Amino acid sequence: MTEEQRTADGAVAPPIISVGADVDVQALVEEVQAEVARKLEAGVYPPELMREVNQDRLGMAVMALRDSAVFSSEPPVGSGRARFAGAVSMAKRVIATALGWHTRWLVDQMFTFGANTVAATTVLLDRVHDHDVALADLRSRLAQPREPQGLETSAPRGRQLERELDQLRHESRSHGSIQDATGRRATYLDLFRQLPGRVVDLGCGRGEFLDLLKAAGVTAYGVDSNDVMVSACRERGLDARREDILEHLAGLPEESLGGIFCAQVIERLEPTGVIRFFELAWSALGQGGVLVVETLSQRSLATFTDAPHVDLGHLRPLHPLTLTFLAESAGFRDIAIRYSSPVPGGDRLEELPVPDDAGLRPLVSVMNENLRRIDETLFGPQDFAVVARR
After folding, report:
1. Domains, the chain, with CATH or none
2. What is the pTM of this model?
3. 280: how many CB neighbours lie within 10 A of its CB?
């Protein structure tokens, strides 16, 4: 008997029961927790490991899973009844020897499954830790004081940022090529056909959506605060104007537009600017006009390792419920949310394979359902759009 099989007071601890044909998931979890608690009391785990694990419940769960993934093909043959101890032990040895080949076959499969499960959850733990680091960095950035900003301007971080960056090159690296961005914007094109007025692309950037509208025969123009972007649009024959988007909306006659498109801009505004944006958009649109506001999705943690840290102009992500509420408050109707920009399949979590052993299938099913939920949180769609009508 090893030292790990004794408790701190020297008493022999009962071995962990092997997984049988009928799996009771709750009993199995309690069994693993009891075994980890016993080893903690016996001092099996080194202090430096426990200092790290005690700060991370997920790490504790992975350690417990790793601890329970070791199986034995040697069943206990002792007996607690002194009177029949010899006969019972002998009978158990005979049965164990006779069924040894079958037991080892089952244990080998269970060990393989356990090892694969531990490996998969360890990778998951590492990824979660990486996202924790990214979230901590984001919180520290958001906690930094910023210059106050008025309601009448949307210009973030001043003009110095625009002067110091090669905007077109930076746009291509952070948001992909013009062809890539055009493909993503094409899903919104049908919303802007046959509207009661012109369409404006606020924060038009390189003009990807203006290209689509022009090809579809929709009268449209763009507004952007960056000289480089406006010049790039004009070189391709597009109508683009160098203005602040909030100032432009405030200067428009009431109900003079048929549609407003605004992609990857709203997250650059201060909170007062976001509120003002929806109020001005409602006033500028005519009856039956369409508003589409696309931004980063904070419901996907993958977003926080990509766009907010690549584009220096992004101040904060905005929740779909927040933008829906602001649209409703401004007077919009028929409000819907569209999600886009899914994470490539090769970067997503994979399900565990269904084992041949029918007794293990319920456990694997529960684990796969949990993996699916975690995957949706980690790697959900990275963008969403609020679509509303005047």
Report:
1. 3-141 (no CATH), 160-389 (3.40.50.150)
2. 0.53
3. 21
